[in-house]
Amino acid sequence: MNTVRSAIFYLGYFTALLVCGVLFLPISPFLPLSARYRLLNLYNHFIVVWFGIACGVRYEIEGRENLPSGPCVIQANHQCEWETVFLQVMKPPVCTVLKQELLKFPIFGWALRLLDPIALDRSRPARAMKQVLTQGEARLRSGLSVLIFPEGTRVDPGQRRRYNKSGSVIACRAGVPVLPVAHNAGECWPGRHWVKRPGVLRVRIGAPIDTADKTPDVVIAEVEAWVEGQLQEISDVPRPESS
C-alpha cells in the first residue's frame, strides 16, 4: 500500500514540477524577488499538502506564533527533502544555503537559482565558509531570512551529527535572532528511499534565540540543545546519546 501511495504522490510531484516549469518559470525572471517567491512557492505549498493527502501523513505543527516579523537565521535538523520544501513557505522570503549541484537539475534547479540562494561548492570548504558568511550577512541586511542546516547534510532519524556554527556566526554578525526548528519528517519521508510512510509528522518552531552579546559558540549550543530536546519528545525513533 505504501508503494502505491508513494507512486501516486510522485505522479503529482512531477506533474506539479512540469506545470511550474511551463507556467511559472518563463515569467519569474521578470518579477521582483518578493513576487518571484510568492509565485514559485505555490509549488512548495502544493507539495506539502499533496504529501499529506497522498501518503496518509498528518501534520502537527506547533509554534507558528514564534515566527519573528523581521529577518532571522532559521536553523533546523535535516532529515529529508520535506523540510527543505516546508521551510521555504514557513517564513518567506528565505534564502537557502545549499550545495551548488542542486542548481543543475532541470526546472527544480532553475527555480532555485531564481530565489537567490547561497550555493556552495562543498569541495572547497574554506571558500564555502567565506561565501556563507559574506553572502548570508548581505541577505539578512537586505531583509531576507537565511535557512541553514547546521548538520550540513541529511542525517537519518536516530542518528546524530555535530552542529556547525556558521549560521550562528551570520546571525551574531548581523544582529538578528536565530529561529530553531525541530521535526521528525524523515520518519515519514525517508531520505534514502522513495517509498513514503504514513504517520504523524511533527514540527516544532522554537522561540527566537537572541544573539545580542552572545558568541556563535553559545548560540549554536543553545540551538543544538533545544532541537535535540524537542527531537527526544517528537521522534518515534530513539535519539542517540550526545557524543
UniProtKB/TrEMBL annotation:
Transmembrane region(s): 7-30
Swiss-Prot/TrEMBL keywords: Acyltransferase, Membrane, Transferase, Transmembrane, Transmembrane helix
Residue ranges of every copy of the Phospholipid/glycerol acyltransferase domain listed in the record: 72-186
Pathway(s) it belongs to: Lipid metabolism
Any GO molecular function: acyltransferase activity
Any matching Pfam family: Acyltransferase
InterPro entries: Plipid/glycerol_acylTrfase
Coiled-coil positions: none
UniProt key word Glycoprotein: no
SUPFAM superfamilies (alphabetical): Glycerol-3-phosphate (1)-acyltransferase
Domain of life according to the entry: Bacteria
Official protein name in the record: 1-acyl-sn-glycerol-3-phosphate acyltransferase
